[in-house]
Amino acid sequence: VAGSVNVAVLEAARIHALLAGKAEANGDGEAQSIAAGGIIATNLILNQAEALVTNAQITTTEDAAVTAENRADILARNNSSISSDGTGVNFTLAFNTIGYEATGIWNNIVDALVGTNLGTEDRAEAVARVDGSTIHAGGDVTVSAVSHAQILSQITNDTESELGDDAGDDASAVAAGIIIASNMTSSAAIAEIIDSSTASGIATGITAEGDLSVTSEDKGTILSNVNLSAKTGGDGEMAQAIQAFVDFFKVTYSDYSGTKSITLGDRVRIGHSGLSVLDRPDTISSGDRIRLDWD
Fold first, then answer.
1. Each residue of 83-103: pLDDT tens digit?
2. Residue 112 to residues 38, 54, 76, 116, 220: CA-CA distances in angstroms?
3. Of 102, 137, 194, 216, which residue is least crowded by CB atoms under 10 Å?
4. How many CB atoms lie within 10 A of CB 247?
5. Strands (DSSP E) along 114-273, which ranges?
6. pTM of the full structure
7. 201 phi-psi bin (left φ>0, alpha ψ -120 to 50, beta other)
8. How many helices (H) and strands (E) does the chain have?
9. Nearest alpha carbon to residue 228 among 275, 287, 188, 176
10. 213-242 pLDDT, tens digit each
């Protein structure tokens, strides 16, 4: 072949899942209400990339390359909000996996709680292989495999229960929030020159006038951010005291407030950002801020 020879495979799979749930319940003043809800989310990727040269004879005047690249990305955001004037219960179950076959919801819960590995591994692999073949190149010979598996997960679970104005003396507010989450990746990158069998009559041989390079890169990343909030309130003296305490320490301005005259006792929040690493805006304009806290 006059020119270069390139055997390349690129596999890329991505899940971008945004899930939000909200429930509100307010009684009629005579009976307290109950609000219960939640989110169950499962995201799974199984993929592989293989670039194989098997039982072949390649001769080229320039470079020869065998490359495989496999990418798997899950970006998942789950937001659940519950509010009630009596009892509020909010649960979130979130499971993200790359390189594991699907299992039942109960297996996922057990794995998240006690750290077992009940899933069947099916790695997200990138394989670049020369087997039982000869390559004669006037330039460089490259065999390269790259596998990247990444999970970015953000979970917010907010529950609020606050007694109404008509609540009786024996009324009580209950707020409960529960999060069970698991993130798992299994990946591999394999770059090799082997001679598994000479039954075809071809023994593996590499001749390069330039450099011979056999490289692999396997990178698995899990970045998870979980926010759980459950609060109760009412019109009693304790609730009023807590609110007064919060008001005393509240922020007066942020760095988005423009030009302001600051007086003694004012509080200013600096550094608040509008976009996070999980956001995917269509455009970014001058002045927009992005928080890169998962680099």
1. 887 788 888 999 999 999 888
2. 17, 42, 17, 8, 19
3. 194
4. 8
5. 124-131, 134-137, 141-162, 174-185, 187-194, 205-208, 212-233, 253-254, 268-269
6. 0.70
7. left
8. 2, 15
9. 176
10. 999 999 999 988 888 888 776 544 544 554
